[in-house]
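G., the chain you wanted modeled:
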Amino acid sequence: NMIRVNNHVDILGTFRFPGQEENADLDMVTYTLLQNVTVLAVGQDYHGVYGTQHSSKQKSYSTITLSVSPAEAEFLVFAQQKGRLSFALRNGRDTVSDNPIQAVNFKFMKDNLQTLLDQRASSQD
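Predicted structure as tokens:
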């Protein structure tokens, strides 16, 4: 329940893909699909045109309405049908998008986790 109207989110998709090796089992892969997407509504809470606002003071929700193009919407609907979508809430001052986006699977995580932890620790100093 942390995502609110006018927040910005990154949308991640997790899918099952064939592994890299011949006859490999399906491998779980996570991709960042879209970055810095504006949240228009959360459940029944929204800010409308001309400053109108509706707030239901609900404690939970099952839908999030996003500001995306028609092509992005098609992409997200397809991704939702083929995998699982997750949302990462962005810092309000963070408007930079990373390019290119790295796909994360078990091998990448194993090979790069320590580097990621080291980078995180050094950025908090």
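The mean pLDDT is 80.

Shout if anything looks off.
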